[in-house]
Amino acid sequence: MSARVGDLATYAVLALLAVFFATPFVWLLSLSLRTPAEVFRGAARLIPHEPTLGNFAYILSDPAFLTYLWNGLKLSALGGGLAVVLAIPAAYACSRLDFRGKQGVLIGILAVQMISPLVILVPLYRWMGALELLNLDASVVAVYGALGMPLAVWLLKVAFDAIPAEIEEVAFVDGASRLQVLTRITLPLARPGIASAFILAMVMNWSQFLVPFILLERDGDWPISVAIFNFAGSTSASTTQLLAAACLIAVVPAVAVFVALQRMIVSALIAGAVKG
Amino acid sequence: MTTRGPAPADGRPFPWLLPAIAFTALFYLVPVIDVVRLAFSDATLVRGASGYSLDAFRAVLGDPALPQVLGTTFVFTAVNVIALQVAGLAIALLIVRGEARGLRGMAAFRTLVLAAWVVPGIANGLIWQMLFDEAPYGTLNSILGGVGLGPVAWLSDPQMALVSAVIANLWQGTAFSMIVFYAARRGIDPTLYEVAQLDGARAWRSFRSITLPLLRTAIAVNTVLVTVQTLNTFDSILALTGGGPGRATEVLALFTFNTVFYNFDLAGGSVLAVLLFTISAALAALVHGWLGRT
């Protein structure tokens, strides 16, 4: 009986919280489907009487906007890929090799993650200029690689730890080198962990504003995160529905990928959190 | 490649660690070292360093705006760190309870909270700016107006603007604490709760005597992670209020950004970055201490 009351209470609290977490998404969708006249009707038009896809059509018909989306995708994917590539050997060493200072390496990696890009914003710009990487995608990708690597190392170490060392030992007996074992046996078995680390890094990169804002000065190179900030500065009350549509387009790819793959990602994160 | 590989447990780690270390050093540690150098210089966005002195430090530390910025940063960080963790812990425990009872919809709810987490910070600020729109047709004010309340000066009143910034940050940030606590709670041996139930312990007693003590490490580590994250949050505030009205929502991270990009003061921005770094490093050392103890 009291368990039933508890169930009801659980649902009641979660329902309240669900309203809080869902409202911004619902409202954003609502605004993006409205005509300007209905924007001014407020909550009374939560479900628009004359819904329109015109706002999306307007935003997506702008070729610059498609370029921003493509830039965002390109930079996020390359940066996430680089982070995973850098992390794989490091995570493998931390998982399979015994060496002095391993704990120090792992904690050092965690410490690096605590340094926000904001701290290095000024020298980063000058340093990239000195390396002649300024205004090149390579500069952003390189920083994304360094930024995303720590979390990827932690997630991949946990994934490698879960693979029994005996499987590798059999291959060693058959004469395989460590590199062969890594590429032929360990990596294929760790695919879910690798995929989770890559997707997480990519989603984080998609959200990045500061790094591309500093390193890419040309409008045509911007990813969507920088572009919507700029776009917001040019909108007014009468174009709220366009800003809503632009925001939705910027938000949906990350949310959709994450929601679609969340079972895999969340279990990787949970495994990492338990070990960490 | 025909020689036999080494036994699994030995080997030199350095070649394996090299790519990660090299990239971190090249694109992270070099700038970190350089930011300290710049902090002692007189560089601006249009001109390099021509000399070194403590002038930038003096100017920044003597800036009459700094006490207010630090105060705002403290309030914003402290309130968020407490609220994020209380909300994250409550949600994690509710979901664990719901799952144990076989209630439907728990995965959907978790997904919803996580969806807010992956919204880009700039978009977060813009979305909440629309929600907080103070015009009669703004989301929250038109809802409040519908039941005869308000209007509330969400963004134009200095104190309310800070509250609004906290709400927007809670919406996005709760998921992180939720995952950490969910993982830690699931790691607790369920027989402990069964024994407690046999002994007639009520839910609150189980929470006090089992859940909280066993989550202590998770809470300690999460506190530091969330504090550092919150301390460095600026893009959502930049898009939401730009730091205003006045300096009401200008936290240290945003102040640093503004010093560089609006005042073109590289040396001053570097001093603020060093300040931010020092606070973060002190907190990282705390984490080390905590991890070392367990």
Automatic annotation (TrEMBL), chain A:
SUPFAM superfamilies from the UniProt entry: MetI-like
Cited PROSITE patterns: ABC_TM1
The UniProt record lists the keyword Metal-binding: no
Keyword Zinc: no
GO biological process: transmembrane transport
Membrane-crossing residue ranges in chain numbering: 12-31, 76-93, 105-126, 138-156, 194-215, 242-261
GO CC annotation, single: plasma membrane
Residue ranges the record marks as coiled coil: none
ABC transmembrane type-1 domain mapped to chain residues: 69-261
Signal peptide positions (record): none
Membrane topology: Multi-pass membrane protein
Matching Gene3D superfamilies: MetI-like
Protein family membership: Belongs to the binding-protein-dependent transport system permease family.
The protein, known as: Inner membrane ABC transporter permease protein YcjP
Species this protein is from: Jannaschia donghaensis
From TrEMBL, chain B:
Family: Belongs to the binding-protein-dependent transport system permease family.
InterPro entries: MetI-like (IPR000515), MetI-like_sf (IPR035906)
Keyword Membrane set for record: yes
Transmembrane segments: 16-40, 74-96, 108-131, 162-184, 266-291
One GO BP annotation of this record: transmembrane transport
Subcellular location: Cell membrane
PANTHER family assigned to the protein according to its UniProt record, in alphabetical order: BLR7065 PROTEIN, SPERMIDINE_PUTRESCINE TRANSPORT SYSTEM PERMEASE PROTEIN
Record domain ABC transmembrane type-1: where: 70-287
Keyword entries, A-Z: Cell membrane, Membrane, Transmembrane, Transmembrane helix, Transport
GO cellular component assignments: plasma membrane
Pfam families found in the cross-reference section: BPD_transp_1
Gene of this entry: lacF_6
Superkingdom of the organism of origin: Bacteria
Biological source species: Jannaschia donghaensis
Main location: membrane
The protein, known as: Lactose transport system permease protein LacF
Topological relation to the membrane, as annotated: Multi-pass membrane protein
